[in-house]
Amino acid sequence: MVDNKSIQIKNGGNAAYALGSAAQLQKAFGKTKISKQNDEMLGGYDYIHKYKGLIVNFNEKEFEDVTVTGSQYQVYLNGQVFKIGDNDTKVKKVFPLAYAERSTQPDHTRILRIQISHNKVMTDAAVVITLNAKAAITEIWIGNDNS
């Protein structure tokens, strides 16, 4: 499990974003292109902030999810740093249960799902780490499970 208060994303300039508001995101990483689209599941609109290697989605003003695909960003989970390109060794050491329960896709990528807790209570949010066939991290998704 990952405590929600321990989650941060830092860029190469060491600016940090802790999954807060769009204003907090822009304060940390600067302004970027924002696209708007209807959200049929949640209602209202999604506002998608796209940076090189990072996409952050808000439904109206509420954080929904973030996808990290660029090595210029570091993801902090329970005090440990993960980034794109890292080998799975650290993931296996820090999250052994999620690693043991990982799923393998037809293209040989592996998916690890780590639940997010709030005040030691499990939530419907998760961290999903994708590993390629060579066991390197290719994507880190953090968000709410609205299924």
UniProtKB/TrEMBL annotation:
Protein name, UniProt field: Uncharacterized protein
UniProt source species: Mucilaginibacter galii
